[in-house]
Design goal:
The two termini are 30 Å apart. Strand 8 (270-271) and strand 9 form a beta hairpin. The longest helix is centred in the middle third of the chain and has 37 residues, at 232-268. The chain has 384 residues and is of the alpha+beta class. It is 50% helix and 14% strand. The protein is globular. Helix 4 (65-75) crosses helix 8 (232-268) and helix 10 packs antiparallel against helix 11. The strands form 3 sheets. The protein has a 4-stranded antiparallel beta sheet with strand order 2-3-7-6, with no helix packed on it. A 3-stranded mixed beta sheet has the order 1-4-5. The chain folds into 3 domains: 5-115, Orthogonal Bundle (Butyryl-Coa Dehydrogenase, subunit A, domain 1); 120-230, Butyryl-CoA Dehydrogenase, subunit A, domain 2, CATH 2.40.110; 234-383, Butyryl-CoA Dehydrogenase, subunit A, domain 3 (Up-down Bundle). It binds coenzyme a persulfide.
Length: 384
């Protein structure tokens, strides 16, 4: 749903210019230093990027899902690490509060998330619970007006930068599955909360993950999301339905960028006396990439519009994430192939994208989990 096309066009143009003029020139630097420069973070805040999907009532832009994925395509025409810094504020690090939080929780946290004053982070995965999120073991035991949290969360995006964590923990020890899980807001600096060393990753340098460790962390009962126990798994799944659309949009944007780079190279690079783009075997790779990007773009937009219309898009979000992230992997592979030997060298940048986009097929649910979600929903809906 596009609410105001003039404002949206202005926003997309502004993001496009920011990407080209500020972010692209810094890609190699961020890749080497593993840090996003402070002035870029300041610019992101000034542009309102941290609050794109936070409702206007709490200081954000209140973009619809369609508007948000369009912005996601644009911002993903550069290294995914830039987007990652503010993505959790629009996505998994804030949506638990946006979707299921109490009014007091929204008023307290969302305005600071919208400006980027604090970064929100989503803590679901554990050392022994990844795809099987319902088996998580972190516990939250009620003690008067507090919950006491114990456990370890793993691969938590933006944890080193986070001001608050949405933490899924088991409040009913006797209930083994999803029903025993509740969601909490835990603030940085709460005694007993500590972080592991920053993970060394294959790609996405500049975007940080680490363990988050809870050792008798006492948080007020007011920080139970929605004030209700036992619904935290559902909150997490609803958050991920939206998050998966965002990753699908990021996959489309990154693929568009890689294809643009491959096209430029195919026009410039000469072999056998002519530009390699004139050879049909190179053209096949360009054409397949463009077709697949087009298909993924259409899927993402369709799923986003359905969400804006109020439909449950669990299946569509999983389809979009599965197809777009796998497509992005294929486009990355072809782009490296078109670059040939140069594709394997750091200085051309395409190998960095190849490593960066590998994560799209893994986080916020692996491709195999998307397949499982799609098939389960099909079988359930068919049976109904
Ligand atoms: N929206 C709302 N509710 C949902 C939901 C969704 N998208 N998906 C599941 N639920 C509900 C179910 O309806 C069920 O509720 P009832 O018992 O009241 O019917 C409950 O949640 C449990 O669902 P289910 O039985 O499907 O849970 P499973 O343990 O079988 O797990 C999968 C389901 C595998 C899909 C889930 O664990 C998952 O998505 N895993 C991947 C986790 C992930 O993406 N991790 C990445 C971390 S973020 S980087």
């Amino acid at each position: 749903m596009i609410r105001d096309s003039e404002t949206l066009t202005l926003l997309l143009d502004t993001i496009g210019r920011f990407v080209r003029e500020k972010l692209v020139p810094q890609e190699a630097h961020v890749g080497e230093t593993d840090q996003i420069p402070e002035d870029i973070v300041r610019d992101m805040k000034a542009l309102g990027l941290f609050g794109m999907s936070i409702p206007e009532a709490y200081g954000g832009m209140g973009l619809t899902m369609e508007e948000e994925v369009l912005a996601g395509f644009e911002i993903s025409h550069t290294s995914p690490a830039f987007r990652s810094l503010f993505a959790t504020n629009n996505g998994i690090g804030a949506q638990g509060i946006v979707i299921d939080g109490t009014e007091a929780q929204k008023q307290h946290y969302l305005p600071k998330i919208a400006t980027g004053e604090i970064i929100g982070s989503f803590a679901l995965t554990e050392p022994d619970s990844g795809s099987d999120a319902g088996s998580l073991r972190t516990s939250a035991v009620k003690d008067g007006d507090f919950y006491v949290i114990n456990g370890t969360k793993r691969y938590i995006t933006n944890a080193p930068e986070a001001g608050i964590f949405t933490v899924m923990a088991r409040t009913a020890a006797q209930v083994k599955g999803a029903d025993g899980i509740s969601a909490f807001i835990v603030e940085k600096g709460t005694p007993g909360l500590s972080l592991g060393a920053i993970d060394k990753k294959m790609g996405q340098k500049g975007a940080h993950t680490c363990d988050v460790i809870f050792d008798n962390v006492r948080i007020p009962v007011a920080n139970l999301i929605g004030g209700q126990e036992g619904v935290g798994f559902k909150t997490a799944m609803k958050v991920l339905d939206k998050g998966r659309l965002n990753i699908a949009a990021a996959s489309v944007g990154a693929a568009e960028r890689m294809l643009a780079d491959a096209l430029r190279y195919a026009r410039e690079r000469k072999q056998f006396g002519k530009a390699i783009g004139e050879f049909q075997l190179i053209q096949a790779m360009l054409a397949d990439s463009h077709s697949e990007i087009y298909a993924a773009r259409c899927m993402v937009l369709d799923a986003a519009r359905k969400r804006d219309e109020g439909h449950n898009v669990g299946t569509e979000a999983a389809c979009a994430k599965l197809f777009a992230s796998e497509m992005c992997g294929r486009v990355a592979d072809r782009a490296v192939q078109i670059f040939g030997g140069a594709g394997y060298l750091a200085e051309y940048g395409i190998e960095r994208f190849y490593r960066d986009v590998r994560l799209f097929r893994i986080y916020e649910g692996t491709s195999q989990i998307q397949q499982l979600v799609i098939a389960r929903n099909l079988l359930r809906d068919g049976a109904a």
